[in-house]
Structure formats: structure tokens, C-alpha cells
Amino acid sequence: MATKRAGGGVTGPHQAAKFVGVSVLAGAVLAGLALPAVGTLGLAAKGTVEGFDEIPANLKRPPLSQRTTILDSQGGEIAKVYSRDRTVVDLKDISPYMRKAIVAIEDARFYKHGAIDLKGVLRALNRNAQSGEVSEGASTLTQQYVKNVFVEEAKDDRNKVAQATQQTIGRKIKELKYAIQVEEKLGKKQILENYLNITFFGQQAYGVEAAAQRYFSKPAKDLTLEESALLAGIVQSPSRYDPVNDKEEARKRRNDVLDRMAAHHDITRAKAREAKRKPIKLDVSRPQNGCITAVKGAGFFCDYVREVFLSDPAFGKTRKVRAKRWNQGGMTIRTTLDPKAQESVEQSVKRHVNKSDKVATAVAIVEPGTGRILGMGQSRPYGFGKNQTQINLSVDRDMGGGAGYQPGSTFKPVIAAAALDRGTSPYKKYRSPYRMQYPSPVTTCKGRWKGKAPVENENRTEKGPYRMKEATAKSVNTYFVELISDTGICPVTDMAKSMGIERADGKKLDQVPSISLGTQEMSPLTMAEGYATFANRGVHCTPVAIKSIKDAQGKKLRVPRTTCKRAMKTKTADTVNSLLRGVVEDGTGKKAGLSGRDSAGKTGTTDERYAAWFVGYTPNMSGAVWVGDPAHQTRMVNITIGGKPYSKVFGGEVPGPIWRDAMQNSLRGKPSPDFHHVPIKDVDKDKKKGKKKNKKRDRDRSGSGGNDREDDLEDQKPDDPWPDVTLPPDVIGGGTGGQDNGGNTSGGNGGNGGNASGGWPNGDSSGGWPSGGNGNGNGGWGDDGGSGGGWDVGGSWP
Question: From start to end residue, where is composition biased (Gly residues) (predicted)?
């Protein structure tokens, strides 16, 4: 047995064999290199046995770069991403014709020699000497494989690629040593399989599987004889024998391969002649690389998946490592994208907004209870040309989006939720004038906000008093300014955070009362996520885009999961659902209503009409639609959108119908459950009806006409929640306390000494009632702050 030398080499017969190998290599080099003279071989260092030993013992074979495939939730392909388009397959999944063709043309004696073909070397030396130039090489298929490993390791580094392919003695010696090692370790079948998977076949196709798909749109196992011969012929010079650009050159080369196969008895002469007569028939699949090629407008969702992958340390220690894995890892990523929902989003966007319009739209749909992103799209396509963009208008800046857009009145339900969760009654009444100053001071998380600024409603006719239901349906600004003043800003920002509603630029929400009008920029995905919390009865689930990932070997990788956490009381969410149903039934969002389904939502239009929104949901889907100018330069006044002129754009005018069409088709065939409602009586409307009846009755009795004017300000006190209970006047809001601004109740139930934060005080007895605990809040709301299920006197709504 041979023994190790101190330098790591081997003595005995192996040393002699190695010397012979190096000597033969000199001939191989001469056969394959054009050199001016034998004396220039320069074998002094690397050409000797000692130089041979200095080469590292093991060939590093990095994992082959493969394409990653991104799928929708049903297994349909969204896109492929790769630095090199390659899919590694087993030898059994490669056509036998292909295996024979590549051996016949590249190394006919492959199964008869070792790492180096001595006969081939001598033959090449003879022919090159006769021709006076290098007309034939002597590299075996194994040596070619080793060279390709060097090229693969170099990736896109031009200097390393040049070193891996340069015609030098040193590289040839290195190539030979590793070829010997590969022959010993792998065996012929594995070498052939590796070679067919690593070799470049032109047209950006690496490996035979990608080549078969590129030229013939079929898997490698289905390649015919003539197709196999064509691909085998390309390998020597992919640009010269490219059948897409030069069919005649490719045909000649294919026929040479067929003749070689016949000469080596892989096929009969007759079969070769028959195949040579056939014309080249291609079915080319053009390279489809990256999210820009995604189907059904899913390029931005694809890009979002990429950002999720690149930002998660579970997929690699650094972003650079993760990016390499994304482009080269050969993964199969199944996403949450619902193909039906995505197509619905795409069609609705195209129907309502043109890509060349001055403004754009973006849509995001998520599933309540799971956080799965079901659809994502926008009117400006993914790309680099005119009317295209690479900015995902649906997501936050750190996920490939922009700085976001002011959500306007779509933020008001967050204020309502914060107030309701702290015990405020949905019957809370405010004066709500057309114009007013922001109340000051207002409590914040760190103290108080003080300042002066005017705020007004959309129309002069919008003046109160209003209760929460009507104020929400009509989107009354001054009502919510008064509500946040009583509730405080901190509970509102805390509620927003617990619902997943945060600024698109990653900054914290500013502690200012103007937040009540949605003045801080957010993304459609964030708003859809937040409203899904209402649909899920108060439980917020973080959004997810990936269902599963398998690596190139089929091993499942850990993927980010949704995290669900209660953001508000169940009854709070149910009450908000009842409030927002009114928006689509008889409010600003009537045009967004879904037929045959229980739905809720809120419109939003920002100051100066730079943005308009509709955010709505059913129990099983939540969607947000934004329309506006991403650059915040174009006001939506006297503007044409989707070929239709608008004097003014409202949230219910353009975003609402986009949402309706996208959701209606997305939900087709799915269950249509109802919300868990908390009944909220429309007290003021009922009063008006009663007054009309009374006046009509009086007219009928007197026989006179009378005045049919509706005076909804006649009774400015809240209705008595319990008619059978005698209440002290200061609790109802009369007497000497609880009046403000000319007698209109600004503090709801509670006198001057009561807790005026809305509804009954949470155990605060200063308003006249003794301290009480939390009551049983099951059931609907009473006429004025009382819960239909027994809201305890003096207790807060639980």
C-alpha cells in the first residue's frame, strides 16, 4: 500500500503514475493549446510532480445555480427567478437519445478511458501537426465537466470566468488533477448526469432540462432523436450553432451529431438518414426571468414575496446570502396568492383606471383570521418603461413601496374602536358644527397637545348634533375631532398599532389631533390588514405571503407564520361592523355595496383631493383601494380617470366601484356568512319619523296644514336608556351640569362632575352614580348608552 509523504503526496506506484500523467498532460496541452514552441510549455512549476501536488486535494463543487419557481396558492406558476436558468434533473429523467448524442459528439470513448484519453491525445497531436493549427482538442467529457465547475464557481465575476477558461498550462494541469479525482469518486453515470446539468446550451439555458424547455417547450425526458442531436451539437459553440438565430448552421451541426451516433452504433445508418431529412422544428419559450414576467399582474406581489424572503434571517445570515439563495437556490415557493382574487383585482383595476392616467390605483386583499394576502395589484404595471414603475404602491417603503398615502376618513373607524373599547357609547352625541377649532389641550401618550387649527366638514349642510352611527355613515369630520378629544390620542394610536395600522415610512404615528382625519401616510396593505381585524371580531393577524418553501432537494424550509392577537374587545369589533355596514347601506359608500353579501366599509377623501380610498370587508375578505397621484402633485378635480370625467373624486366614487368589482368576483363561489351584529338604533331618525307622524296626526285632527319642518335639535338631551328607572337630572346631562356650547351635550351621559370621556363613567361616581364595576355587555346597545344585554348602571361597557 502506498504511504503518505510529509508534503501530502503519495509515494510508490501512484507517484510514478502521477509522473506519467503529467507527462501525458504535456501532450494533451500541446494537442489543445496553440503555443509557439514546445520550449514555452513552462512545466517547471506546475508541470512537475511536485507542482501537481501543490494543487489543493479536493475539487470544490458548489451547489449548481438553479432557478427558483414562485407559485400561487393553487400551484399555478407566477414567475421564475434565477441568475442562471437551470433545473437539475436525474439521469433517468433525460432522454436516452440525449445521453448518447452528447457522448458521441463530445467524447466517443467516454466509457473506455479514464480522466484522460491517451488515444485522443495522440490523434489530436497528429492532426494539429498536419494542419499547423489547433483543429482538434483532446479534452475528455470529464475534463470539460471540471472546467464548467470552475466557471460555475466564478458566477458573474468576469475576472474569475476568464481565469477559469484561459488557455494556460497551469489551468490544464489543475483541470487534469481534478478530472482524475472526479473519475475516482463519481463514476461514469454520475459524471454524465452532472455534465448534462451544468453545461451551457445557449439562449440563457444552463443544463439540458432548461435547454429542452427553451428550444422545444418540453422536459428533457421527452426529447426525440433529432432534438437531442440538435442540443448536443450546440454545446461546442452555443452562439455559432444557435438554432434560433441560424437554423442552417444548427442543422449541419445536428447532422454531424447524427452521423457520429451512427458511426458508434448508437443508432442505425438508416435512422440517422431519416432524422437528417427532418427540418428543425422549434417551439421556443423565451427566457422568463424575474418578477417582471409574473402572470396576471402579480409582479408586485412577487416582488413583495422577494422582500419578505430577503428580510428574514431564517433564510440566511445576511441579506447578501439570502439574495444569492433567492436567485440560485432552486427553491419552490408556494404563496398565499389566490388566483381568482388576483385576476379579479387585475380586471377591476384595468376596468376603472388606465395606466396612462394622471393618477394611479392600488389594491390589496387579505383574509381575516389567517393574514393571508390573497390579491395585490395596481394600474401602473411592473416595468421600466413609460407609465410603468418598480414601486409597489400597495406596501410600505421597507417592503418595496413608497412613502404611503394619507388614508383620510378611512382612519375614523380606528378612533371609534378606541373610544368604544374604553366604554364610550355608540349613541354618544356631539354638537359637530360645520366648522370648529381643534379642541385644546388634548391628552397624548407623553402629555398634552396644545394648539389652534380649524377643521370643517365636507359640506356646509353637515352640522350636528350627530351620534356615532350617522357621523360614521356621513363621515362627519367635526364629530371625530370631538371624539378623539374626549378619548385622547394615545388610546387611538395604541389601537392603530394593535390593528397593524402604522405609517408606511416606518416612523411612529404623530401624537396630533389631526390624526382623526387620516393625515398620516399609510399603505393599502396596511389598511386592509387593519380592517380585517374588525372582520375577525377584534383579533388582528399579521399579513403573510408565503405558505411553504422547498429547497432544490425537496426539503421543506421554515416560513414566517401569521401572529394573531386580540386588538379589541369582541363587542367593540361587532359594534364597528354595525357602524360600517351603514356606510355601504345608506352612507358615502353606497356604490361599493356587494349584492347578496354582508359587507362593511369606509370611504376616505383627503384634503385637496390628492387621494381617495375605500376600505371594506366581508367576514372572509378585507380589501383596500387607494386612488391618487403617487407623487402627490395632481388633485382629483376636473379630471379624467379610466376615460370617464369627474368634477370631484370621492372615496365612494372611484375607489368604491373598484373595490366592489374586485371583491364581488373574488368572493364568487365562496361562503357568504353574516357579521355578528350589535343592533344600534338610529335614534334621531326614529325621532324624526315620530315627529312627522305626530304632526300629521295633529293636522288631521285640526284640519289645518301646519308646518312640516323637521327639527332634530328639539330634544338635545340623550334619550332615557331605562324608561322604568328614575334618574337624577345631572346624570342624564341636564340640571346645572353636562351642558356645553349652548346646551348641546358634549359629554354624553354624565354631568359636570361626571366622566365625559363618552358613555357612562368607568366606575367614576363624581357624576352622581356610586362607583360600579364592569357590567355584563352581552347583546345590543340601548337607546342611549345602555346595552341591550344589561349594561350595569354605573359600570363601563365590557
Answer: 732-798
